[in-house]
């Protein structure tokens, strides 16, 4: 479990599962898909940039399991 401090509040997070790296940056940071518990809540699918030690992060987006299933279905129905 780790703590990220912002100007306004403390954010407690725990990466429950590292699913995969989407993009590797020359800085050492990576855009990743992980399963993350925020502030002790149920884990959510999470896409954001992380530093190599997973202590600092960028803003990102989280998805409940139903939302990630919908996202996958939408992408599967497109030609990419």
Automatic annotation (TrEMBL):
GO terms for biological process: regulation of DNA-templated transcription. Pfam families: PC4. GO terms for molecular function: DNA binding. Residues 27-73 form the Transcriptional coactivator p15 (PC4) C-terminal domain. It comes from the Bacteria. This is Transcriptional coactivator p15 (PC4) C-terminal domain-containing protein. It comes from Zhenpiania hominis.
